[in-house]
Design brief:
Chain lengths: 187, 176
């Protein structure tokens, strides 16, 4: 549960997720981690990674699955509505405006250049977030191997995500079990 | 393009079905969306679909919002809302039910192992999506330098990543 702050209220959940949605360039997961783990300290690195893992194993957009699970965990049904509503409300308005603007100005070179630069920086942000998580989570060797296999499968071989998640889950679970057993024996 | 209830119903049922098979996230089912939108219903061309997808990637927010843009293209604001709800509601209810179940099982050793076991896959997939985005954005050495610089900044400091996005946009305007 939350490391050193009380669980957020329903309005806090809505406003925080509204902000996550609006600044969420390059995908929301990196930003959700940044705000929830580093800024608000509502979850530890490990807890966030676990909720994200479940969000990816369940069908549907995984940032949404994370928002619903965290909202439900902290504030029940009201939280499970407030967090995803915040997450989608801002970007939907932005997208509606963009859809109109894009038809008119999308081909302007300057707009394209700014978007290209932002996209390159956002890619680095996502990579940096993954490296930071891996560093802080201090995986055991078998757990690290499963992570690398997911990386090779998705970025290298471009396998479909359902195949990666479902195919690697048994190995991840075995690696986690081995790590837990080793930790208990060491105590 | 036909307006009205028929199209809205097609949007709702089509995306509701996709929502429930999207294991790994909304991006995993982009090919399936393409099939529904271009091949099955002929709502738009392949090129238009790719354009909408790029637009959704460039905008802030969940990447799955490309379904909102598709809905917009097909049936305006109502279409946007219907498509977004159809894509989010079925899987969202499932996630909610799972979360309730998880509370009941809290502390169960089996559940703990499953949760920990999914962590490396989650981190590996984030890293992969970053690399794939970086590859798509790598139009030249300026873009690659931006990606590398922003990787180091976000990895090694705790400052807000908004800084690198602002720098990225500015450098893009000047050099790309």
């Amino acid at each position: 549960m939350p490391p050193d702050t009380p669980r957020p209220t329903v309005p806090q959940l809505f406003l925080t997720y509204l902000r996550i949605g609006l600044i969420g360039f390059g995908g929301v997961n990196a930003w959700a981690r940044r705000v929830i783990v580093e800024e608000k300290r509502w979850l530890s690195e490990q807890d966030y990674a676990e909720v994200l893992g479940l969000g990816q194993a369940l069908p549907g957009p995984n940032a949404l699955n994370v928002a619903i699970q965290l909202g439900e965990r902290w504030r029940g049904p009201a939280g499970a509505i407030a967090a995803p509503a915040g997450l989608f409300a801002g970007p939907l308005v932005v997208l509606a405006l963009l859809a109109m603007a894009h038809d008119r100005w999308g081909e302007i070179a300057l707009v394209k250049a700014v978007l290209a630069g932002t996209a390159a920086a956002a890619a680095g942000m996502v990579i940096g977030t993954a490296l930071k998580m891996a560093q802080k989570l201090k995986p055991s060797a078998p757990v690290l191997a499963v992570g690398l296999a997911a990386l090779v499968g998705a970025a290298g071989l471009r396998l479909p995500l359902p195949a990666i998640v479902l195919g690697l889950a048994p190995f991840g679970i075995a690696a986690a079990w081995w790590t837990m057993r080793r930790g208990e024996r060491a105590q | 393009m036909t307006e009205g209830g028929g199209v809205l119903w097609q949007l709702a049922t089509g995306f509701a079905a996709i929502s429930l098979i999207a294991v790994g996230g909304g991006i995993a089912v982009v090919p399936e969306m393409n099939r529904l939108v271009v091949d099955v219903h002929g709502w738009m061309t392949d090129a238009r679909f790719a354009q909408l997808f790029a637009l959704a990637q460039a905008a802030p927010g969940p990447n799955v919002l490309v379904v909102g843009l598709i809905g917009w293209q097909v049936a305006g604001l109502t279409g946007m809302l219907v498509a977004t709800l159809a894509m989010t509601l079925p899987s969202g209810l499932l996630a909610y039910g799972f979360s309730r179940l998880r509370t009941r099982l809290a502390g169960s050793r089996g559940l703990r192992v499953v949760e920990k076991g999914l962590v490396p896959i989650a981190v590996g997939l984030i890293l992969s999506s970053g690399l794939i985005l970086g590859q798509a954005a790598a139009s030249g050495w300026v873009a690659v330098a931006l990606t590398l610089g922003s990787t180091l900044f976000v990895w090694r400091t705790d400052l807000s990543p908004l800084w690198v996005l602002a720098v990225g946009g500015t450098v893009g305007a000047l050099f790309l």
